[in-house]
Amino acid sequence: MKLKCKKINISTSGPLIAILNIHDADELDVTALDRIKIKKGKSSVIVAIDIANDNKEIKKGQIGLFKGVQAILKIKDSETVEIEQIQRPNSLYYIKGKLDGKELNEKEMDEIIKDLVENRLTEVESSYFVSACYRNGMTLDESKYLTNAIVRYGGHLNIGRNVIVDKHCIGGIPANRTTMIVVPIVAAAGLTIPKTSTRAITSVSGTADTVEVLAPVGHKKEDIEKIVKRANGCMVWGGVLDLASADDKLIKLERPLSLDPEGILLASILSKKIAVGSKHVLIDIPIGPEAKIKTRKKAEKLKNSFKKLGKKLGLNIKVIITSGFQPIGNGIGPTLEARDVLMVLQNRINAPQDLRKKGLYMAALLMSMVGIKNSLTKATEILESGLAYRKMQEIIKLQGGDPNIRPEDLKPGKYNYEIKSEKTGHITIISNNSLTRIGKAAGAPQDKSAGIYLYKKLKDRVNKDETVLKIYAENKDKLKNAIDICKKCKIFKVN
Amino acid sequence: MKLKCKKINISTSGPLIAILNIHDADELDVTALDRIKIKKGKSSVIVAIDIANDNKEIKKGQIGLFKGVQAILKIKDSETVEIEQIQRPNSLYYIKGKLDGKELNEKEMDEIIKDLVENRLTEVESSYFVSACYRNGMTLDESKYLTNAIVRYGGHLNIGRNVIVDKHCIGGIPANRTTMIVVPIVAAAGLTIPKTSTRAITSVSGTADTVEVLAPVGHKKEDIEKIVKRANGCMVWGGVLDLASADDKLIKLERPLSLDPEGILLASILSKKIAVGSKHVLIDIPIGPEAKIKTRKKAEKLKNSFKKLGKKLGLNIKVIITSGFQPIGNGIGPTLEARDVLMVLQNRINAPQDLRKKGLYMAALLMSMVGIKNSLTKATEILESGLAYRKMQEIIKLQGGDPNIRPEDLKPGKYNYEIKSEKTGHITIISNNSLTRIGKAAGAPQDKSAGIYLYKKLKDRVNKDETVLKIYAENKDKLKNAIDICKKCKIFKVN
Lengths: 495, 495
Description:
With about 500 residues, chain A is α/β, with parallel strands linked by helices. Chain A has four domains: about 1-85, Barwin-like endoglucanases (Beta Barrel), CATH 2.40.40; about 90-135, Transferase, Pyrimidine Nucleoside Phosphorylase, Chain C (Transferase, Pyrimidine Nucleoside Phosphorylase, Chain A, domain 3); about 165-400, 3-Layer(aba) Sandwich (Pyrimidine Nucleoside Phosphorylase, Chain A, domain 2); about 410-495, Pyrimidine nucleoside phosphorylase-like, C-terminal domain (Aldehyde Oxidoreductase, domain 3, Alpha-Beta Complex), CATH 3.90.1170.30. Chain A has 18 helices and 18 strands. The first copy, chain A, has helices at about 20-30, 65-75, 90-100, 105-115, 125-135, 140-150, 180-190, 205-210, 220-230, 245-255, 260-275, 295-310, 335-345, 355-370, 375-385, 385-400, 430-440, 475-490; strands at about 1-5, 15-20, 35-40, 45-50, 60-65, 80-85, 165-170, 195, 235, 280-285, 315-325, 330, 415-420, 425-430, 450-455, 460, 465-475, 490-495. In chain A, strands 1-5-2-4-3-6 form a six-stranded mixed barrel. A four-stranded antiparallel sheet of chain A has the order 12-15-17-13. In chain A, helix 12 (about 295-310) links the parallel strand 10 (about 280-285) and strand 11 (about 315-325). In chain A, helix 3 crosses helix 4, helix 6 (about 140-150) packs across helix 11 (about 260-275) and helix 14 (about 355-370) packs across helix 15. The first copy, chain A, is globular, with a radius of gyration of 25 Å. The model of chain A has no long low-confidence stretch (mean pLDDT about 90). Chains A and B meet through strand 4, helix 3 and helix 5 of A and strand 4, helix 3 and helix 5 of B.
């Protein structure tokens, strides 16, 4: 069938879509979500279709093409293209099989992920894959095949070194900026750590958001490789690299129902480590009532899965289970967190000791994983001698930031509000979820200097009317939003 | 957040969608597939969002609205609307629960279907419901709640009669136009049968396509009610009535993976019967290697489920298991099938006897279900006396067709091609699937007079070079397409 193109000048995410008039769709015997092949000269592209039910904008004889399709076929308006029906991709049969309880083999998993990345599956079809993995679980082999397929159809870093280390934290804990302590210490110790981080998805600040207060984070692959070769480490946003584009697509489909199949979670994390070339990976699983992992039992199960899958993938994996009952550090929000980090690296006496201790511990573990003896002593020496701070300055400079920025330069938002204790006693509960809601309402992470500063942490003694925390915002409206939320939720408990 | 509307003048099927620029989406902390509320004055609408990744067509500060949303809010171009984040609908939690293996209660099922029909669920979310029902199965109670919810959120016919009967055939068998024999017989016997049928989805012709050769089928609800009150029966296309719009949406999501969860199948069929007010339902399950149901065991299981669910729903259900090894009747395709039907009703000696016999049998069963004794004798009298034919003429006239149309007036396509037997023997296999592919390639059901005429059926003796079937098309190209397919597939076997 020949149809005349009508350009729809919008570029959307997800699979390629074309819009057919209902009469042409009937004639082609296709319906919404079916696939067609669009041919123009020697180029062709496979798209999913949607149906225009009236004859107004997409008339009989026309085909509406969004930007993605236009670009591939180099379409001019009113140009004629040839439409063909096509076979359904084999990956659909594999997904159906998985939904029916069959185990996917390497070839099948590879083809599903290839089709997913190359936009040959519609969102509905891909969501059947997610629900099959969620409902039926995944074997260790399936997780291995999935990890490898994500790596195969994603970007890579080529650092050209043998010993590359990495760390990852299963999220849910505000602040917790250990990456920014660990990277300078281990890089100063001579280890290579090309650290890529995410921006906040549901949190007040992601590591990439906080690093960005000190230096740009959106570097190209070649620049990251150069920085790491010079400084042994970096702290950049992983989004640019497209390390795991299959993973991004799966996460998007998991979100509506908050599905998080363990097999996909494991593959998601480890594929990014493999894609940067790392062989030694430290995983931090914080547990707490408001952490992602809530019980020790679940954390132990996940730890076990990480170890087993790591072995299958030829990775040296160490998993630590840590306390996730409260934020690590005092500042929450990009600027306040960056200030905490600089204070730790500069060995200031008012630096948050929990952040310092956890960062040192993790750095030491990574160092011991590659055979460095007395690693905690060595890591502490690197920190206390100022070597770690100088490494941080080097990385900030290479990433394009000001290496001489001081904690004093990092000023929180000028609108603020103090929350005081209503009675004298000890802090017994701090709610991560409430802090997250308040920090986001105050404007973080978009407003870099918005956030919360905690003057008191768990077990600290507090007097009646003493300030427990201070909320910062860049404008009055957002401060008001944050205060409104404070009134609605329990942030801490004093007993 | 306030955004300026940009009209995208396309109306698409499915849930309401708006497009946000990625910067605004970040600010709102929403991502693709999340929901937002768009407010304009006192009107508001909830939509799912997609993200424009560049700043070209949907700029920061703009929101792209498709026609459905424009219509609801009566949007003018460049008008400003207010955007709000909203809570996820509760039905998402119920769907998650079902995916986790929980049984849905009546309220939960009702809310899922309500949100589905009212476009509050995205396709991805709805597909999780389908996969949960597919993977975990549905209890009889869940099927009951689903049936009732589909009826509640769909259209209805109000015929105002107590004894309303209906029939349904689980598809897959070409021709098999028993509806057009059964309706006139039982309507002439005084039963009320407001028959709604579908158009072809994957077959050469649906009942609605074939009836349309004799009379229009796309009547409005009020007209159908009038016709049925006058003639006791009708044969219309159900699509106009929107009897089961939830069901249509679910079927669309089932198609990509050919999922067909039994609970949804049952609810899909019975909800349409309840929506037209029928209490007595005859279900025909043909079995055969190329029928939808392939084995007697599966048919018996489905029969059992129909009986049990019918009882729960207060329906009088009879299920027959019939032979689905070959087409019923000789003509395949709208015109050829309509000709067969008229020949049966006019008691012509060359009328297909299998269609006559099956139609009589089913009509008699329906009559006996409402207490008519000696129903086969009575049905036969109604057919042979010409009463059934006169009832057919009455219905054709009321639906707006020519009641005096004769079989001779129904001419197949002028391009034709005969397929002959390569040897002498008996026909031992006829392939329904091959006939379907050929009939569709020849142009049916869009080309009414395209199709196939079978001169020989199973067990018939055939000589070498004798014609077994003839393909008809309205143009040369399509005839050629059909002939090409003939060469690729086994249509029949002679032994």
